Every structure is written in structure tokens, then in C-alpha cells.
Amino acid sequence: MFKHFRKTTIAVAVIATAGLAGAAIAQQKTMAIGTGGTGGVYYPLGGAIANVLSKALPNTQATAEVTGGSVDNLKLIASGQSEMGFTMADAALDAFKGEDKFKSGKVPLRTLLVVYPNRMHVVTVEGTGIEKFSDLKGKRVSTGSPGSATEVMAFRVIEAGGLDKDKDLKRERLGVAESVNALKDRKIDAFFWVGGVPTAAVTDLAATPGMKIKMIDHADLADKMNAKYGKLYSASNISKSIYPGMDKDNANTEVWNIIVTNDKMSDDDAYNIVKTLVEKKADIVAVHKEAESFNLDNQVQERSPVPFHPGALKYFKEKGIGK
């Protein structure tokens, strides 16, 4: 009888301990953040954000996930596999409206934060014979990895530039790091990449001995793109000081990046995430300077085609930013 009582006591203790462990696990919130490839800007920024959120929010473990980029991130949010993701405004609008790569259904998105502008890089090197945009015709060109917003925007730039992406280019679908390696090996002649500046992989190309980077101007195409796709794009430039070996500033196009979530995220979670990202900005800037744009002045609906989350709006209102 004593043995039986002891076994029962131990069993109850084990069950009680397991129950407490289960409760602890239940209280721990996991948060996956869709970023991009390791050679871009989304990934290091996402890692910094995950670190800041994990430290600042109680019982929260945030992780940055390597993905194909904007389109992948939006699909991961739609399927519930990610809680948050970086995306370019144009890809987000397609997802919100259920168009282009999202014809299978609309994604119920909400914007948490407008973050920074992505600049379209059209990159080549000396010796390819490419001096201006029309010279891309007949060349081997990477238009970005499948599932990336680089591909979405590259197709629109190419179209506005009077070229057919399928007929006029020998097209590859590579991420920025793979594009750089392919250009170094002379397997391609040029590549498109839309991202923050500086992008590590492009810096690597520009600093490669025996290579002289050239950036192709195309800022004049922004108006044509906006005429067809809505006011998403603007003319911009990349200073010649950004990448080693540039002879002149590059006149290009840009589009804003946003961090989005599903409309099912609670108002409290959205409020706490946005508050943390704005108020801990310095910790994120220490990882990549594009986080300088994580400020309240940029939180205007014109820069996001997706409605802001009510939790984000609550924080903005507290700070005197009206929408």
C-alpha cells in the first residue's frame, strides 16, 4: 500500500510538473518574421528586429526567416506560417487586391510600419557593352529570384523601358548574391536588384579586383510605371559614394518598403511591436543604417497601399501623428 501511495504521489508530481511546463510553453509567444536572401537588406534588418522584439516583449521569441523576398513573405503571412514580413509596397498591393501573383485570393493584410525606400539597381560591369537601358536587349540578365519583389518591379521597369522580358532578354531568375557571383563569372551580363543601400552583395561586386561596377540610369521610367500600376514609384538616385568604383550618381527608381501582418494580429500585439520598433530604432540602426527611416514622419498612408493596423494607429495617435 505504501509503495502504491508513493507511486501515485510521484505520478501526480510528474503530471503537475508537466502541466506547469506546458503552461510556460503556452505563455511563450513565437513570432516568425519573413525577410529575404542573406545578401540583401531585409535579412540583417529582420535579424535586428527579431533581437529587439525578443528582448523587449515579455515571453516573446521572434526569429528572422530567410525567404525569397516580398512575394514569399506575403504568401507565408496568408498561410499563417509567418506573423510578420517585409514587403515592397507594389507586391503588397497585389496581395491585398488579389492580383498578379496572388490571383488565387486576396491576402487580408495590415501595415505595421513604413520602413525605408527600396532603390532599383540595374547593375553591370565594364566589358559587357551595356551603357544605357536599351542595351540590355539580347543580353543575359537576371531579373531576381522567384518569389521576390525584385522580379515584380523588374518586369515593370523592363516593360516601361520598351523591352519584352521574354523575347528581348536571355533571362535568369537569381537572388542578389547569386546574381553577383554569376556576373563575376561572366555567366550573365547584368542584373536587377531592388533593395536598400548599401546592399552587401552589390558592395562585394563593386570591391572585387578586376571588376568595375556600372549602374544603368532609368529614373525616367517612373512616370510610365505609375501610369499603369498606380502611384507607387518615384525617381531617385544612388550616390556614387555608396558603392566603390562608381563614376557618377545613378538615376534610378524607388518604392517604399513596409512591414505587414495578417489582420488577425491583436491590437495589443501590433501596438507593442510598433512602439518597440520606433523607440528601439537605434539598436536596429547599429545593424543597418536603412533603419534610420523607422521614424514617425514616414508613417503616412500615401506610402502604404495597405491600411495600417488599428494597433499601429493607436501608437501613432499617442505620438500626435494623424492619419
Question: What order do the helices and strands follow?
Answer: HEHEHEHEEHEHEHEHEEHHH
Q: Based on Cα principal axes, name the global outline.
A: globular
Q: Report the strand count.
A: 10
**Number of helical runs?**
11
| Overall SS class | alpha/beta
Ranges where pLDDT stays below 50 over 5 or more residues in a row are 1-18, 20-24
What's the rounded overall pLDDT mean? 91
Q: Distance N terminus to C terminus?
A: 72 Å
Summarize the structure.
The protein has 323 residues and is of the alpha/beta class.
Helix and strand layout, with pairings?
Elements: H1 2-27, E1 29-34, H2 42-56, E2 60-65, H3 70-79, E3 84-88, H4 89-97, E4 109-125, E5 140-142, H5 149-160, E6 170-172, H6 176-184, E7 190-195, H7 200-206, E8 213-215, H8 222-229, E9 234-238, E10 250-262, H9 267-279, H10 281-285, H11 310-318
Parallel strand pairs: 1-2, 1-3, 5-6, 5-7
Antiparallel strand pairs: 3-10, 4-7, 4-8, 4-10, 9-10
Notable traits:
323 residues, alpha/beta, 10-stranded mixed sheet, 10 strands, 38% helix, 21% strand, disordered N terminus
Descriptive overview:
This protein is of the alpha/beta class. It has helices at 2-27, 42-56, 70-79, 89-97, 149-160, 176-184, 200-206, 222-229, 267-279, 281-285, 310-318, and strands at 29-34, 60-65, 84-88, 109-125, 140-142, 170-172, 190-195, 213-215, 234-238, 250-262. Strands 1, 2, 3, 4, 5, 6, 7, 8, 9 and 10 form a ten-stranded mixed beta sheet that branches. Helix 2 (42-56) links the parallel strand 1 and strand 2. The longest helix has 26 residues, at 2-27. It is globular. The N and C termini lie far apart (72 Å).
